[in-house]
Write a structure and sequence with these properties.
Rossmann fold, 12% strand, single chain, 7-stranded mixed sheet
Protein backbone atom coordinates (compact mmCIF):
# COMPACT_ATOMS: atom_id res chain seq x y z
CA UNK A 1 0.00 0.00 0.00
CA UNK A 2 3.07 2.14 0.49
CA UNK A 3 3.25 4.89 3.16
CA UNK A 4 -0.33 4.19 4.21
CA UNK A 5 -1.65 6.72 1.69
CA UNK A 6 -4.44 7.68 4.06
CA UNK A 7 -3.82 11.43 3.84
CA UNK A 8 -4.35 11.57 0.11
CA UNK A 9 -7.04 13.87 -1.22
CA UNK A 10 -7.99 15.63 2.00
CA UNK A 11 -9.42 18.65 0.23
CA UNK A 12 -13.11 19.33 0.48
CA UNK A 13 -13.83 18.10 -3.04
CA UNK A 14 -17.19 18.75 -4.68
CA UNK A 15 -19.48 18.17 -1.72
CA UNK A 16 -21.97 20.84 -0.71
CA UNK A 17 -21.55 23.20 2.21
CA UNK A 18 -23.75 21.18 4.57
CA UNK A 19 -21.65 18.05 4.02
CA UNK A 20 -18.40 19.95 4.43
CA UNK A 21 -19.48 21.63 7.67
CA UNK A 22 -20.65 18.38 9.27
CA UNK A 23 -17.45 16.47 8.48
CA UNK A 24 -15.29 19.44 9.41
CA UNK A 25 -17.07 19.74 12.73
CA UNK A 26 -16.51 16.09 13.62
CA UNK A 27 -12.80 16.50 12.93
CA UNK A 28 -12.56 19.63 15.10
CA UNK A 29 -14.48 18.02 17.95
CA UNK A 30 -12.26 14.93 17.72
CA UNK A 31 -9.11 17.05 17.87
CA UNK A 32 -10.31 18.98 20.92
CA UNK A 33 -11.43 15.79 22.66
CA UNK A 34 -7.94 14.40 22.06
CA UNK A 35 -6.44 17.49 23.68
CA UNK A 36 -8.70 17.02 26.68
CA UNK A 37 -8.04 13.31 27.11
CA UNK A 38 -4.33 13.39 26.31
CA UNK A 39 -4.57 11.38 23.09
CA UNK A 40 -2.04 12.40 20.44
CA UNK A 41 -4.02 12.98 17.27
CA UNK A 42 -1.06 12.29 14.98
CA UNK A 43 -0.84 8.82 16.54
CA UNK A 44 -4.56 8.17 16.99
CA UNK A 45 -6.04 5.29 15.01
CA UNK A 46 -9.64 5.80 13.90
CA UNK A 47 -12.45 3.47 12.85
CA UNK A 48 -15.48 5.04 11.15
CA UNK A 49 -18.86 3.40 10.71
CA UNK A 50 -20.47 4.76 7.57
CA UNK A 51 -18.84 6.26 4.50
CA UNK A 52 -21.69 8.33 3.12
CA UNK A 53 -22.04 12.08 3.52
CA UNK A 54 -20.99 12.31 7.15
CA UNK A 55 -18.47 9.51 7.41
CA UNK A 56 -16.50 10.28 4.26
CA UNK A 57 -16.20 13.99 5.01
CA UNK A 58 -15.20 13.28 8.59
CA UNK A 59 -12.52 10.93 7.26
CA UNK A 60 -11.19 13.63 4.93
CA UNK A 61 -10.93 16.33 7.55
CA UNK A 62 -9.62 14.01 10.26
CA UNK A 63 -6.95 12.80 7.85
CA UNK A 64 -6.04 16.44 7.25
CA UNK A 65 -5.32 16.77 10.96
CA UNK A 66 -3.06 13.72 11.05
CA UNK A 67 -5.48 11.14 12.37
CA UNK A 68 -4.85 7.69 10.92
CA UNK A 69 -8.04 6.27 9.41
CA UNK A 70 -7.50 2.52 9.67
CA UNK A 71 -11.04 1.17 9.26
CA UNK A 72 -14.22 2.13 7.43
CA UNK A 73 -17.45 0.15 7.63
CA UNK A 74 -20.24 0.26 5.07
CA UNK A 75 -23.25 -1.98 4.50
CA UNK A 76 -21.05 -4.65 2.88
CA UNK A 77 -18.50 -4.97 5.68
CA UNK A 78 -15.47 -3.37 7.32
CA UNK A 79 -12.39 -2.42 5.31
CA UNK A 80 -9.30 -2.43 7.50
CA UNK A 81 -5.65 -1.59 7.00
CA UNK A 82 -3.60 -1.00 10.18
CA UNK A 83 -1.10 1.36 8.54
CA UNK A 84 -3.83 3.70 7.31
CA UNK A 85 -6.35 3.23 4.52
CA UNK A 86 -5.78 4.77 1.05
CA UNK A 87 -8.45 7.40 1.53
CA UNK A 88 -8.35 8.80 -2.00
CA UNK A 89 -9.01 5.38 -3.50
CA UNK A 90 -11.85 4.65 -1.09
CA UNK A 91 -13.52 7.96 -1.88
CA UNK A 92 -13.24 7.30 -5.60
CA UNK A 93 -14.67 3.80 -5.14
CA UNK A 94 -17.79 4.75 -3.16
CA UNK A 95 -21.22 5.36 -4.61
CA UNK A 96 -23.82 7.94 -3.55
CA UNK A 97 -25.07 5.73 -0.73
CA UNK A 98 -21.57 5.32 0.71
CA UNK A 99 -20.98 1.72 -0.40
CA UNK A 100 -17.40 1.06 -1.48
CA UNK A 101 -16.67 -1.06 -4.56
CA UNK A 102 -14.33 -3.77 -3.27
CA UNK A 103 -12.94 -4.33 -6.76
CA UNK A 104 -11.44 -0.83 -6.69
CA UNK A 105 -9.50 -1.00 -3.43
CA UNK A 106 -6.00 -2.43 -2.83
CA UNK A 107 -5.86 -6.19 -2.42
CA UNK A 108 -3.93 -5.95 0.84
CA UNK A 109 -6.82 -4.27 2.65
CA UNK A 110 -8.53 -6.69 5.01
CA UNK A 111 -12.25 -7.25 4.48
CA UNK A 112 -13.93 -7.97 7.80
CA UNK A 113 -17.52 -8.46 8.89
CA UNK A 114 -19.74 -5.40 8.93
CA UNK A 115 -19.78 -5.04 12.73
CA UNK A 116 -16.07 -5.60 13.36
CA UNK A 117 -15.26 -1.88 13.19
CA UNK A 118 -16.59 -1.70 16.74
CA UNK A 119 -14.12 -4.19 18.22
CA UNK A 120 -10.89 -3.16 16.52
CA UNK A 121 -7.87 -2.07 18.54
CA UNK A 122 -8.19 1.63 17.75
CA UNK A 123 -8.12 4.86 19.75
CA UNK A 124 -11.23 6.55 18.35
CA UNK A 125 -14.58 5.30 17.10
CA UNK A 126 -16.80 7.51 14.93
CA UNK A 127 -20.26 5.93 14.53
CA UNK A 128 -21.55 7.96 11.59
CA UNK A 129 -24.19 5.77 9.98
CA UNK A 130 -27.20 4.60 11.98
CA UNK A 131 -28.95 4.99 15.29
CA UNK A 132 -28.31 2.53 18.14
CA UNK A 133 -25.12 1.23 16.53
CA UNK A 134 -23.48 0.84 19.95
CA UNK A 135 -25.80 -0.84 22.41
CA UNK A 136 -25.94 -2.77 25.65
CA UNK A 137 -25.33 -6.05 23.83
CA UNK A 138 -22.15 -4.97 22.00
CA UNK A 139 -20.63 -2.09 23.97
CA UNK A 140 -18.34 -4.34 26.04
CA UNK A 141 -16.33 -5.05 22.90
CA UNK A 142 -15.24 -1.42 22.52
CA UNK A 143 -11.48 -0.97 22.93
CA UNK A 144 -11.33 2.69 21.90
CA UNK A 145 -10.52 5.49 24.35
CA UNK A 146 -12.79 8.03 22.67
CA UNK A 147 -16.15 7.86 20.89
CA UNK A 148 -17.28 10.78 18.73
CA UNK A 149 -20.92 10.40 17.71
CA UNK A 150 -21.24 11.42 14.07
CA UNK A 151 -24.73 10.03 13.42
CA UNK A 152 -27.94 10.90 15.28
CA UNK A 153 -28.34 8.78 18.42
CA UNK A 154 -25.75 6.15 17.39
CA UNK A 155 -25.15 5.20 21.04
CA UNK A 156 -27.88 4.08 23.41
CA UNK A 157 -28.27 5.40 26.94
CA UNK A 158 -27.02 2.09 28.37
CA UNK A 159 -23.91 2.21 26.20
CA UNK A 160 -23.19 5.82 27.15
CA UNK A 161 -23.45 4.80 30.77
CA UNK A 162 -20.94 2.01 30.11
CA UNK A 163 -18.52 4.51 28.54
CA UNK A 164 -18.73 6.78 31.55
CA UNK A 165 -18.25 3.94 34.02
CA UNK A 166 -15.25 2.56 32.12
CA UNK A 167 -13.46 5.83 31.48
CA UNK A 168 -14.15 6.01 27.74
CA UNK A 169 -14.50 9.63 26.64
CA UNK A 170 -17.67 10.26 24.68
CA UNK A 171 -18.85 13.30 22.73
CA UNK A 172 -22.65 13.15 22.22
CA UNK A 173 -24.23 13.53 18.81
CA UNK A 174 -25.74 16.98 19.16
CA UNK A 175 -22.26 18.35 19.90
CA UNK A 176 -20.19 16.22 17.52
CA UNK A 177 -22.36 16.52 14.41
CA UNK A 178 -23.48 20.12 14.96
CA UNK A 179 -21.19 21.54 12.29
CA UNK A 180 -23.88 22.10 9.70
CA UNK A 181 -26.42 23.58 12.10
CA UNK A 182 -23.79 25.74 13.77
CA UNK A 183 -22.34 27.03 10.54
CA UNK A 184 -25.68 27.90 8.97
CA UNK A 185 -26.85 29.39 12.26
CA UNK A 186 -23.92 31.80 12.34
CA UNK A 187 -24.56 32.72 8.70
CA UNK A 188 -28.28 33.37 9.20
CA UNK A 189 -27.69 35.52 12.28
CA UNK A 190 -24.93 37.51 10.61
CA UNK A 191 -22.20 36.38 12.97
CA UNK A 192 -19.92 35.49 10.06
CA UNK A 193 -19.81 36.61 6.42
CA UNK A 194 -20.44 34.26 3.51
CA UNK A 195 -16.78 33.36 3.26
CA UNK A 196 -15.74 29.67 3.54
CA UNK A 197 -12.54 30.32 5.48
CA UNK A 198 -14.24 32.65 7.97
CA UNK A 199 -17.11 30.21 8.45
CA UNK A 200 -14.78 27.28 9.15
CA UNK A 201 -12.61 29.36 11.47
CA UNK A 202 -15.58 30.53 13.54
CA UNK A 203 -17.15 27.09 13.56
CA UNK A 204 -13.94 25.43 14.72
CA UNK A 205 -13.63 27.89 17.59
CA UNK A 206 -17.22 27.38 18.73
CA UNK A 207 -17.19 23.58 18.49
CA UNK A 208 -13.86 23.27 20.27
CA UNK A 209 -15.04 25.53 23.08
CA UNK A 210 -18.26 23.55 23.46
CA UNK A 211 -16.38 20.25 23.49
CA UNK A 212 -14.03 21.51 26.22
CA UNK A 213 -16.95 22.77 28.28
CA UNK A 214 -18.93 19.55 27.97
CA UNK A 215 -16.04 17.24 28.85
CA UNK A 216 -14.85 19.50 31.66
CA UNK A 217 -18.30 19.75 33.24
CA UNK A 218 -18.74 15.99 32.91
CA UNK A 219 -15.49 15.40 34.78
CA UNK A 220 -16.04 18.07 37.43
CA UNK A 221 -19.65 17.20 38.23
CA UNK A 222 -19.43 13.43 37.82
CA UNK A 223 -22.13 13.35 35.16
CA UNK A 224 -22.21 11.88 31.67
CA UNK A 225 -21.16 14.10 28.74
CA UNK A 226 -24.73 14.04 27.42
CA UNK A 227 -26.12 15.35 30.71
CA UNK A 228 -23.35 17.93 30.77
CA UNK A 229 -24.20 19.05 27.22
CA UNK A 230 -27.90 19.33 28.05
CA UNK A 231 -27.15 21.39 31.16
CA UNK A 232 -24.93 23.78 29.21
CA UNK A 233 -27.56 24.13 26.50
CA UNK A 234 -30.24 24.93 29.07
CA UNK A 235 -28.00 27.51 30.75
CA UNK A 236 -27.30 29.23 27.43
CA UNK A 237 -31.00 29.25 26.59
CA UNK A 238 -31.79 30.93 29.91
CA UNK A 239 -29.05 33.49 29.31
CA UNK A 240 -30.43 34.23 25.86
CA UNK A 241 -34.00 34.61 27.16
CA UNK A 242 -32.83 36.84 30.02
CA UNK A 243 -30.93 39.01 27.58
CA UNK A 244 -34.06 39.56 25.53
CA UNK A 245 -36.07 40.82 28.51
Amino acid sequence: MGQGGQREDSAAGGENLEEILTGFGIAEVSAEACNFTGLKQDQARVAIQGFGTVGSMAAKFMSDKGFKIVAVADISGTIYYPDGLPLKRLLAAKNMSGTIDRAKIPADCQILNRDEWLNLDVDILVPAAIGDAIRKDNVSGVKAKLVVQGANFPVTEEAERYFYQHGIANVPDFVANAGSAGGFGMLLTGQVPLDPDRILEALASRLRETTREVLSLSKEEGISPRFAAVRLAEERLRETETGKL
